[in-house]
Amino acid sequence: MAELPDMRAGAVPAKGVEGMMDPVLRDRRIWVLMAAAMLTIMSNATITPALPGLQQMFAANPDAALMTRLLITAPSLLVAITAPIAGSITDRIGRIRPLCWGLVLFSVAGTAGLYLGSLEAILASRLALGLGVACIMTAQAALIGDYYEGPVRARLMGYQMAAVNLGGLIFVTAAGAMAAHDPRLPFAIYGLGLILILPALRCLHEPARTIHDGILGEPRAPAEPGWQLNVGLMAVAAGATFVMYYAVPTQLPYLMASVGLDQPQQAGLVLGATMLAAAVLSVASGPLRRWLGRVGTPVTGFMLLAAGFWGMAEAQTMVTQMSFAALNGAGLGLTMPAFVTTALNVTPAHRRGTVSGIITSAIFLGQFLSPLATQPLVTYLGYSGAFHVAAVSYVVLGALLFLTMRRQPGSVPAHPPRKG
């Protein structure tokens, strides 16, 4: 099968494009990279339905309650610590080898919970899993930056975010069914990483690269002036977004129970509405970015997040909870692709791996810090009060981002709306 050309600067093949599918999706590399992104959602979420069963299985351990919960947060901490290092490595030795090493480590460490005999050993394997996730995420994001430019890159970041959310729906649902039979079974899902290695080797290739001060890179892709500041702003914004956003999976079920919506399936439906809306808006984020611009896109996302959190704090019925949860997911679907796209757009090619690692680190650090930030709010203000604070925080974040970046290059829409 002939290799498809690089889709640079928004160009797409003129021949062979049929139907309504985005032509860029006919590139096999995209499906491999999106599958890699989809896998990373499992670093935290997959074993969540199994936690009660694991705690019961290791009830003889006096620290079972704490350690089973650490199984969820441990990968995030390791990703936050190691992702910048993994990104720097991809800049020096290329993208494909770290991606494949990450897939191997992801599967070996992820499936270790099937057979390890102690919680301590399983916790250690979860730390190793975080290292694998860091390698996968930094390498695949850098490859998207290498292969594609302009509007195509923005659309693909949206598709990637959509894949992550759909992966969450599929894998967590499957894990719940498996955990009902045996709490160890969800660990088997991590073996999917091994299946992806062969397609990665067959479909992906290292971009043509030269040496820049000992680092691999592409001389034709210079940086924007002040790119370090822009990258730093995107990293801070991404981390801050997740500090508050992770109150949804960790605190929303309790908020719903406080107003009488205390059935597990009700919380599942609301969380599903969040993921579905995030997937839809992620796909739309690329085209919307052409109208809203570099700053307008995430600022709009922050306003949707604020409306969603405020509405969930006030909602008393399932219909209103699902509606505002969908607004919340839509906000995430606009913000996160925008942060990654902006960071890659302003960065010189030979630093994309490092920058991908910095953004990845910020996202997972935000996830790790979320319970530490939101639980005190719940203690003093209650669940509704905590969600109100989150809503106000997103308004403040949006205002700060607008004021900071509105004068930066590329902050205006690339293609303003046409009249008529």
Automatic annotation (TrEMBL):
Domain named Major facilitator superfamily (MFS) profile: residues: 29-409
Instruction: Report the main location listed first in the record.
Output: membrane
One Pfam family assigned to this protein is MFS_1
**Gene3D superfamilies for the chain:** MFS general substrate transporter like domains (1.20.1250.20)
* Localization in the cell: Cell membrane
CDD domains referenced in this protein's UniProt entry, alphabetically: MFS_arabinose_efflux_permease_like (cd17473)
Provide one Gene Ontology cellular component. Answer: plasma membrane
Which Gene Ontology molecular function entries are recorded, alphabetically?
Answer: transmembrane transporter activity
Q: How does it sit in the membrane?
A: Multi-pass membrane protein
What residue intervals traverse the membrane? 30-54, 66-87, 99-117, 123-144, 156-181, 187-205, 226-247, 267-284, 291-313, 325-346, 353-374, 380-403
What PANTHER family does this protein map onto?
Answer: CHLORAMPHENICOL EFFLUX PUMP RV0191, PURINE EFFLUX PUMP PBUE
Name of the protein described by the UniProt record? Predicted arabinose efflux permease, MFS family
The major lineage groups are:
Bacteria, Pseudomonadati, Pseudomonadota, Alphaproteobacteria, Rhodobacterales
